Amino acid sequence: MRMLLWLSCVLVLAATGLEAFCFAFPWRPINRPHLNRLLDMPEFQSTVRTNSLGLREDGEIPADKNPGEKRIFLVGDSFAFGFGLEKRDTIAEQLQHCLSASPRGGVSPKTSVRVINAGSPGTGPLHYAHCVRRIAMPLRADTVIVFFYVGNDMENTHEPYLAFPYSLKNRLKILFPNAYLWASGWKYNRPAPADAPHRIGLDPWSTATLHRWGKREGLSPEECDRRKAALSPIVQEWLNRRDVNPAYLYDALTHPQILNDRATLKSEGMRRAMQRCEVAVRKIKKSCARTRAQFVLVVAPASYQVNDEQWDFWRQVGYALDPVEALRTAPQESLKRFCAKEGIPCLDLLPDLRKSGIHPMHYARDEHWRPATARYVARVLCDFLKRQK
Question: Whose C-alpha in 13, 73, 177, 361 is 20 to 30 A from the C-alpha of 237?
């Protein structure tokens, strides 16, 4: 018994030491450094280049600012990054053009604005908090804009449907977030191999990956295969031609209710995930307060919350989309209440996108915005920042 207690104390001290080490030293770039790749997807092609910090910038960002320079850091997942967009069409580029073109909103003729794209596909609020602390603050950001995407940021922070809710992975995220991010992102600490292909497309379908996703949710391989076999022939054809991201299928087949749950926050797991997101947002606020940087939270809606143009697609890949629950706005309302309490300026994009009149707004078999939508969002954000001034 004494030996077990001693061993437990040693493990706790070792984990705490690792957490402190990962907190004190840079843990990973935003994306792979010095990336130069062509994303060749079924509905778009776009070129992606990153600098030594993994930022989607053509050059390096010096630590010292030019006289009169204002730096705005745009932090978020693939929507902030501009997945599916050329660099000129990204929100960061369009926002810089909008703020620089107008002398109003606190931007004087002697002031230059630089919007830095710190988006990283597939990440969530835990990553955003570390990005702000490790990248934006040392580079002397004047304003930090964090994009919160309702479509997956909650489960990227805390997985809501695990068969064992307090699994090792979720425990590590909660107790040792710095160590978790360092361990999960080790491969980003080095540039892509020199012989890596220049052209990148969708990954092929993997039954083993589906079984792995199902195991986390308590589903047997036989149940996963049964659900996959029930898909329509057109979806099977999409998979064969690599015309649809297989991650949508893994997600839909293992927890088909997730779209409704995101919009309503009716499950305990999803509510817990939202609470973990609020903890991460509070950390970002504290980081910005240390350097007196302005902090703005932008809430980007899931595609099915905006309109019904993609509902058929989501149902085809296996989601149990309810037409009433899908249009609910529980995440937006929860975040707006939280921001009002914390004194954080919050922009909810859902009302503006619903009345934008843009059609189509998203790619047909992908949830990301088309260039016209990204330009519209940049204008809405630009006007919001001017009002904050």
Answer: 361
| Pair 345, 295: CB distance under 8 Å | yes
Measured between alpha carbons, how far is 125 from 277 in angstroms, rounded to an integer?
Answer: 6
* Coil vs helix vs strand at 181: helix
Beta strands in 194-235 (DSSP E): 199-200
Q: How confident is the model at residue 105 (pLDDT cuts 50, 70, 90)?
A: very low
Q: Which residues are CB-neighbours of 116 under 8 A, at least 6 positions away?
A: 55, 57, 61, 71, 72, 73, 74, 92, 136, 139, 141
Could you tell me the residue range of the domain that residue 187 belongs to? 15-388
Report yes or no on whether pTM surpasses 0.70.
yes
Read off the amino acid at residue 272. Answer: R
Q: What is the average pLDDT across 122-126?
A: 90
Task: Output the 3-class SS for 201-235.
Answer: CCCCCCHHHHHHHHHHCCCCHHHHHHHHHCCCHHH
Cα 180 to Cα 185: distance, rounded to the nearest angstrom: 8
- For residue 98, the tally of other CB atoms under 10 A from its CB is 21
pLDDT at residue 111 above 70? Answer: no
| 267-303 pLDDT tens trace | 999 999 999 999 999 999 999 999 999 999 999 999 9
Candidates 322, 213, 156; CA nearest to 228 is 213
Number of domain units in the chain:
1
**Integer Cα distance of 356 and 152 in angstroms:** 23
Q: What is the length of the chain?
A: 389
In a domain, 327, yes or no: yes
